[in-house]
Recover the amino acids of this structure.
């Protein structure tokens, strides 16, 4: 069930109204759990079995970790991690590794080839696996008690607003909220719905419009001029931002309506002045996950400079691989890792406003070039696309959007940046709320591009 | 009052979801609403099916009426019994439009079998007509092959619903993937609301030169195409490359079908692939599916081809706002089919002594 579908709108209305009809938290937990099951079943029904197994295993692992001491405690954690990572590796990376082994075998002259598995990646597997792992790790570290209630724990993993594309939550934030009964709060409803509408706007008005140009540019990269290819890449930078942050806005807003506050996932990443700042503003829940559970255990800032940079690089490589089983994602992560380790960090702040603007623009251009690897079908396609940008000469200028729509898209991007910079909050005053809803619904309808496009991050 | 309203909305939402997922109920509603002039009805394809899909009813250049003209052929003298597996291109072609045919049966190629009882005194001809966009979807798979051979020895061998098999409509109703289309139909697709959608579609067309949803404009802006036939990595796309293995599977399936139906008693089985509009109108980059299938040296099924003749035409073959042909395109196809039928009539042996089934 896509957030930008009528099915979701009706589903959300029914579940939310029913949620506030119930007078006990126990009833609400069961309602949300059943609703989340339906939400997940509506993608590919069979994959709920995988989700169910991981929930059961991690629930009991959490208990055992809490009860045990010393080696046994560690053993339960390792078991849980191996199980989660094993599932992820099997479903997401098995064919990737098989493909590469086959290439190696072929290169060495061997005729034998490994067979591929005919499996599809369960929706949102990377997200809920990471969320489940954060639970067992936090219990192991003693920062959060093991959850006694199975439905509450299951809901922690399955809570539909963040089930398939995050934010990747921590138990400390979500579990207490799932257990506490809270009365209907109109200010939360207003804020939540306003945020959802902003998310819808980013998705259907901006991201899906830009997608027309991006798909064309990447689909016809060999025929287009340098300027057209660069424009396509820039549009993709904003498409992926609006698509993913739009999803996060809808998810965070939907939870907010039910008085549940999820963590922030984006904070205007394209106004960053440095790559480190960019990563503190982009996909925050994933960045902090890697920081807390990979970077710090590797030594964090407490090791020598060379080791620290190596660790940073490893984290970015893993982050790239997390996104997808393709060398394009690994290269994308590696490039970010390289840039982060090469460029000076926050110790050399840029004070001049002009310098600050210039570095911000330069960073955006570099990040845009990196996104080409993220969007391309394979490494060859990405390299050819980038080569095309530097191949000045003849080529088509049209990228699937006429000049008026291209101008309109740029106007929308400007409006997006200004709105999020000057008015990042989604608090709407009581008297203006109705007008705001009417305006946003009208804008979404009138300027929305309704092609039933999936959210980009669903594939991860 | 607020609580009552809340409960009403919950019930209405559940009811709506329920109605939109139960196929018989949706079928019942559709029967009453589609092509109905009342405020609660919906006109879907008055000006062309793609015009309807894209709500381009306020853009007259894509409008076209169904202008089909059919010549009547006498039925009594025909010595051919014609069975047609076809689709929306030809399902409204009357039996009298086919020459030298005494008995005629039409079956929706993907939705229902043709119950046939062959008459041994006649030429029993099976014509498999398939739109290009469905060729790879249905003939490159092995499902059809399995169903053909999974049948018993009676004269009603193929009864599986291929659409259901392929699209997974057999999954429980509440997970029906068509629920969004049904919800849209039930919530927003009414004659009294549709003018707003027509204005929006007209604005998109006039300002941004594009259609919406599953419909795209041709390069010269004069024709509408179904998006899946010109874009994306799907096998309906005229430009999506065809692998050798896939081509061989199509030929294998067609040969299996031919062998099966000849063994069942048909005298001849013909294949006729109708090109996607984009295949003819924008041939650059075409994946050559039709010529590769029709001219494949291993193909044993006989072919009634319009591909080359369509290419030679200087006049329009397809309706501008529709996935289907215009009268010109239809007449070319009918002429080709009738030439074959008349030839069969002329060369048919006298089988009167064999007795009828």
């Amino acid at each position: 069930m896509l957030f930008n579908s009528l099915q979701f709108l009706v589903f959300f209305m029914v579940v939310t109204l029913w949620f506030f009809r119930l007078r006990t938290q126990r009833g609400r937990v069961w309602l949300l759990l059943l609703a989340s099951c339906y939400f997940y079943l509506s993608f590919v029904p069979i994959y709920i079995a995988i989700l169910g197994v991981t929930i059961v295993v991690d629930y009991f692992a959490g208990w055992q970790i809490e009860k045990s001491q010393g080696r046994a405690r560690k053993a339960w954690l390792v078991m849980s991690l191996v199980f989660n990572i094993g599932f992820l590796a099997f479903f997401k990376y098995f064919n990737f590794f098989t493909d590469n082994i086959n290439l190696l075998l072929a290169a060495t002259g061997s005729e034998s080839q490994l067979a591929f598995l005919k499996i599809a990646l369960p929706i949102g597997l990377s997200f809920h696996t990471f969320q489940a792992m954060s639970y067992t790790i936090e219990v192991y570290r003693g920062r959060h008690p093991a959850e006694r209630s199975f439905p509450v724990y299951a809901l922690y993993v399955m809570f539909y607003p963040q089930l398939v594309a995050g934010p990747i939550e921590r138990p400390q934030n979500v579990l207490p909220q799932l257990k506490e009964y809270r009365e209907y709060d109109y200010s939360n409803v207003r804020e939540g719905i306003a945020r959802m509408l902003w998310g819808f706007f980013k998705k259907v008005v901006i991201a899906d419009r830009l997608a027309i140009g991006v798909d064309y540019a990447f689909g016809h990269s060999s025929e287009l001029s340098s300027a057209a290819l660069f424009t396509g890449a820039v549009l993709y930078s904003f498409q992926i931002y609006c698509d993913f942050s739009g999803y996060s806005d809808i998810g965070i807003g939907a939870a907010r309506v039910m008085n549940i506050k999820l963590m922030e996932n984006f904070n205007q990443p394209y106004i960053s002045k440095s790559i480190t700042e960019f990563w503190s503003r982009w996909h925050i829940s994933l960045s902090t996950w890697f920081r807390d559970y990979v970077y710090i255990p590797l030594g964090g800032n407490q090791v020598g400079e060379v080791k620290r940079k190596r660790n940073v690089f490893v984290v970015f490589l893993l982050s790239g691989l997390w996104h997808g089983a393709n060398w394009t994602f690994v290269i994308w992560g590696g490039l970010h890792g390289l840039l982060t380790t090469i460029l000076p960090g926050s110790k050399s702040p840029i004070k001049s406003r002009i310098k600050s603007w210039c570095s911000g623009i330069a960073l955006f251009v570099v990040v845009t070039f990196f996104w080409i690897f993220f969007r391309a079908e394979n490494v060859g396609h990405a390299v050819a696309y980038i080569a095309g940008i530097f191949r000045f000469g003849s080529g088509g200028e049209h990228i699937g959007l006429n000049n008026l729509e291209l101008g309109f898209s740029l106007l929308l991007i400007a409006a997006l940046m200004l709105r999020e910079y000057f008015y990042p909050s989604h608090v709407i005053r009581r008297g203006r709320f109705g007008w705001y809803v009417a305006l946003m619904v009208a804008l979404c309808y009138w300027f929305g591009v309704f092609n039933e496009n999936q959210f980009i991050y669903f594939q991860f | 009052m607020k609580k009552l309203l809340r409960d009403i909305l919950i019930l209405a939402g559940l009811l709506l979801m329920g109605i939109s997922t139960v196929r018989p109920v949706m079928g019942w509603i559709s029967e009453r609403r589609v092509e109905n002039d009342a405020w609660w009805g919906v006109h879907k394809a008055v000006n062309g099916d793609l015009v309807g899909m894209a709500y381009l009813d306020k853009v007259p250049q894509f409008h076209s009426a169904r202008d089909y003209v059919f010549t009547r052929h006498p039925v009594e003298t025909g010595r051919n019994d014609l069975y047609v597996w076809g689709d929306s291109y030809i399902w409204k072609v009357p039996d009298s439009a086919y020459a030298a045919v005494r008995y005629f049966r039409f079956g929706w190629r993907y939705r229902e079998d043709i119950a046939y009882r062959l008459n041994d005194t006649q030429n029993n001809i099976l014509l498999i007509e398939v739109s290009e966009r469905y060729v790879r979807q249905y003939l490159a798979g092995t499902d059809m092959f399995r169903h053909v051979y999974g049948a018993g020895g009676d004269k009603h061998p193929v009864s599986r619903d291929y659409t259901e098999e392929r699209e997974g409509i057999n999954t429980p109703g509440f997970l029906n993937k068509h629920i969004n289309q049904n919800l849209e139909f039930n919530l927003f697709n009414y004659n009294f609301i549709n003018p707003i959608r027509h204005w929006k579609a007209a604005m998109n067309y006039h300002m941004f030169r594009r259609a919406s949803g599953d419909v795209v404009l041709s390069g010269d802006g004069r024709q509408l195409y179904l998006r899946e036939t010109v874009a994306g990595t799907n096998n309906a796309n005229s430009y999506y490359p065809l692998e050798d293995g896939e081509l061989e599977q199509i030929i294998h399936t067609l040969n299996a079908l031919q062998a099966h139906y000849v063994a069942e008693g048909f005298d001849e089985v013909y294949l006729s692939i109708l090109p996607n509009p984009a295949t003819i109108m924008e041939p650059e980059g075409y994946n050559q599916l039709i010529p590769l299938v029709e001219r494949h040296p291993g193909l044993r099924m006989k072919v009634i081809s319009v591909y080359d003749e369509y290419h030679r035409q200087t006049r329009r073959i397809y309706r501008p706002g529709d996935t289907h042909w215009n009268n010109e395109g239809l007449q070319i196809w009918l002429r080709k089919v009738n030439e074959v039928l008349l030839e069969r009539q002329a060369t048919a042996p006298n089988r009167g002594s064999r007795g009828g089934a």
Residues 80-140+235-351 of chain B form a domain with the Rossmann fold fold (CATH 3.40.50).
